[in-house]
Batch of 4 targets.
Target 1
Amino acid sequence: MNIINQSDIIKALQKNSRFDSLLHQCDTFLGIGEGVSEVLEYFSKECEGNEFFSIGANCETPSILSLSSSFETTSLVDKQVDTILCNPPLNEYEAYCKRILEECIAKRVVLILPMEWKESAEIRAFAKAYKFESELIGAVGYIQDNKRAKAEIILFFRSYFSERTALEHQLNREYELGDLFKELDHYRFSLIGEERKRKSEEIAKECEGMQNEAILEYLLQRYEKEREDFFANFKHLSKISSLFLSTIKVENGKLKIE
């Protein structure tokens, strides 16, 4: 497999302040392909508080959880991670890049791509369609056909605004009801990391200075309220209007209760 040397990628990322900030901002990372196995292992040891997953990478570190041995047969639409890393085969980089941008719900994708990626109208179109912006965060050299060549480390990212726009873009298609709720669920999970952090900080602030018994009582009350809110929201599903359904192009004839 013709891939860029992983030791060079690690060195480039080590001295990159943008990638260092990602390691501290994000909780979960997914590495795709054999081209990032060493990269995952290195940074999983450097950042023990983060969670690392892999697809199609033979990682020996027990803390890196393998989700699948094959990227070709594994969908990304349900992979709830903050950041994706991929060093695709040089002869397949365009196919890898387009599929990751199309399927993933991650906010950030770090791809190692040969310089000519910028000439790919298809990659630019996919990035635009799925609301990704791009930023050069590093570069590595490699040898191809006995000649020196250069690859770029590109960060594709979605701002919060872009995430909402991406959802609106997806809803502009005609949906079976099951597909609609799948899309909405994927979007919900894309924000769950931020919500988890916000709640943790809120609970820590509320419990500051409390005795153990008071903390337990507070958590029980909070749980009961969130449980009530959940069931209240669930009941609202029965009130979805035909106007809303027609707006998102779900036809009445396609609705059925099983």
Note: The chain has a mean pLDDT of 78.
Target 2
Amino acid sequence: MKTLSYAHPVLIGMLAVPLLTACPGDDTPASSNDTTGAASTTGTVDSSTTNAADSTTVSEPDDSTTVAPPDTDTDTDTDTDTDTDTDTDTDTDTDTATDTEGVEGCACINSQNKVESTATPDAPTCGAQLCDTVLLTCNAGCFEQGPTLTNPEALQCALAALRDMTPGIVTWSYEENGGQFTNEGYILRNEDGAAVRRSWGWSDITYDAGNAVLGDTEPPAFYDACSTEPDDQARFNCLRSALTSQTAVCDDGWSFEDF
């Protein structure tokens, strides 16, 4: 019985050693965990602070405004548009006045400004009709027998008026193959001796209205020689011959394609 009483303190001592050894071990891990937690917390704070600062630096409203200021673009566009419109309008008005009403000798010619139209040009607004319109046709049998002059006396009247430079208007009309080819026109003699000539007509599917041209006609001797020409078509061509010189264009011509 005394032996058993001695055994108990030993057992108690053996059991007590691990318990004492475990206590310091428990304190060390706890301390490590606390340090790690503090470091983790510190890292989190630094990371958030850094990211927030970086984000603010990337997008700055002030820098964006400085790079592309809206005021500069607005001022430039406004100034350019205003200057261009003003210059264009001024130039256009000046050119129009010079080409039509400002030319001496064109006062009797209307400015029509037709585009792709079959309209007949307006007759001069002044000047008396000196002779009947000279009519020449080339229809059935024309290529074997030649064209037909409907009113020879009107042709002689017109040639004499051109020779004598009589102020007024002479006119002509030519038709071939039932209207497939036509040519009409006038010569207006102004009081100062200058003339305005214009012609128009069809050439198959194309309609052309020529310019109203101001200039000089052939000399009197030319029309004297034409008056004695036996061929009707040759005399007719003398009447509608082009001007020998051009001073100005009173009105621009136009054309039309009939497809």
Note: The two ends are 143 Å apart (CA to CA).
Target 3
Amino acid sequence: MYGVISKLWHKDRYAILTNKFFYIIFLNSLLYWGGNLYLDYTNRGFMDFVATLQWRQFGDLVKILYRCFILYFILCFSLSLCVNEKIYRYIESLLVLLSFSIGCINIFLLINFFTLINPIFIGVFLSTNIREATEFIQMYMPIKTLSILGFFIILSVCLTYKQWFAWQLRTSVNFVIYVLCLVFLVFAFLSNKPQYFETRFIQNNSMLYFATTLYNSLHERHEEITQYANLSKNMQDFLESILLDSKNTNGGGGANLSSYQFS
């Protein structure tokens, strides 16, 4: 017991609250909040947008930020208890890369199609081959899109290339924050409907929304393939029964089954 308390009291083995950690939080929060704000601006015009802009919208950003902080702090602190620093930094860099990739996709969709990542886009992406995807990107990559994406890439590299910020707290402090985040997350899940939890914690987070949308799209695609395979098998069995009845009725012969195969 003393050993556990002593371990929690001393400095953490490595910092969790780094520039990469905050990059992930701010990017995933700002993409959703800023993207919807941009869509609101393009739909109503600049003057009408400014006239209706309220501090409440910035309050929504703060709520999205602390929800993202809760989710990613729980994930990162749990990882820090299970793996050493080298593996943790690899996972952290992977999360940064995923956030960056989703950010590029969202910026591309906002500029060209005035939308964020959605199930329709995921469905089209899954049904597109490499050649079609290349032609699509070439068609929708004007100077404006390239310039904005180039600025985003340079900014992301400057913010995440090296660990230039690390706020190292005692393990006991991190553990207290971890417990508070867990309590808040469980309370939010139990005290509200599942739809509320999904809207506030998943759809407001670009990475989680992309992951859940991709999973649902893959699941639906798998069900469609399974249904098609079952339909094909049922049709084949039906044709076989017809040909067998025809053969029994005519006393032999029968047509070639391969000419009736369903595909």
Note: The beta strands are 17-18, 166-167.
Target 4
Amino acid sequence: MELLGQSYKNVKSKFLELDHFLEVDDCGFTSYKFGLGIYVSNSESYASIVEGVIVFKKRIL
């Protein structure tokens, strides 16, 4: 799944369906289930696009 440059709202919606423990804040979200974080400069803006992705070792929940 391509994430960079995609609509933040669409990406967040897809991950909310897959990870009910998604941690959302002003700058994006973190999924410990999938071991990734998504960064946007303003998560409240309807037009926000994904600007950064971090990948880390996932946690077993």
Note: The first strand starts at residue 23 and ends at 25.
